[in-house]
Design brief:
By secondary structure, the protein is mainly alpha-helical. It contains nine helices and two strands; from the N terminus they run ααααβααβααα. It has one domain: Four Helix Bundle (Hemerythrin (Met), subunit A), CATH 1.20.120. It has a two-stranded antiparallel ribbon. About 5% of the residues have low confidence.
């Protein structure tokens, strides 16, 4: 077996998968706090594998496919398992269906991303909410809001359904969401506002012990939808023939 440079980023990708599997096990054992932390750790490894792949110049189609398979488990199946254990198990069949939505939407989101992939370069935007962002939205709500006393008990069933359905819908939507800027001067010069917003969100989440993560993800989720709506209304009112045609929908192939 020939060992190449691609082994290094692939190890980070597999660490992502291990964290996702461990999160599922922890969820069904009732260790919800550990399960949510493991999903966050999976996100860190998911970010590092791309960084390491670019540093070692070992990006490849194999790495992309491996990353998608691991993301499906860590950011699709694991959050769905957490939702089922924390709340939806008491709704039986309907609860099973609702809790599966992040996994179903996440897999569709990854399949669409793969068929639309044209280069290994970083994208400024993603079409549809990235599956790691969807997972962070769900687990941060479950751990920091649903299991705490922040919300009145009567609100919690409605809120967890809303967060689950809205996040799943955002992942399979055609709304453009910003990619996380790389920590570099080039990213700061290229998109200073986006870079500053993400930096504030990350720092505030760390300083508050994760409590600011869910509000930040809500801003990210709703902000992308509002921007998409504004651009859509502007394009509708613009009669210029140079307006770019809509991207084809791979689900109609």
């Amino acid at each position: 077996m020939r060992v190449t440079r691609s082994v290094i980023p692939n190890l980070f990708t597999l660490a992502n998968l291990f964290c996702g599997f461990a999160a599922i096990v922890a969820a069904f054992e009732g260790r919800i706090s550990q399960a949510t932390l493991l999903v966050v750790m999976a996100g860190i490894f998911d970010m590092l594998d791309g960084v390491v792949a670019r540093i070692t110049k070992s990006t490849s189609e194999f790495g992309v496919e491996l990353d998608s398979l691991c993301d499906a488990v860590s950011f699709g199946v694991a959050p769905s398992a957490i939702l089922y254990v924390v709340f939806f198990s008491q709704w039986h069949q309907w609860g099973l269906l609702l809790s599966s939505l992040p996994a179903l939407a996440g897999v569709l989101r990854l399949a669409r991303f793969n068929v639309q992939l044209t280069s290994m370069e970083d994208k400024l935007y993603f079409r549809g909410m990235p599956i790691p962002a969807g997972a962070f939205t769900i687990v941060s709500y479950v751990y920091l809001w649903h299991t705490s006393d922040i919300l009145p008990p009567d609100w919690k069933p409605l809120m967890i359904v809303f967060v689950t359905v809205f996040t799943a819908a955002a992942m399979v939507s055609t709304v453009k969401y910003d990619n996380i800027p790389r920590p570099s001067w080039r990213s700061l010069r290229q998109r200073p506002i986006v870079f500053s917003v993400f930096l504030i969100g990350i720092v505030s989440s760390v300083v508050t012990g994760g409590k600011a993560l869910f509000p930040f993800m809500v801003v990210y989720l709703i902000g992308g939808a509002i921007r998409h709506l504004v651009l859509f209304m502007r394009d509708r009112s613009d009669s210029d023939d140079s307006v770019e045609e809509a991207d084809p929908d791979p689900f109609t192939m």
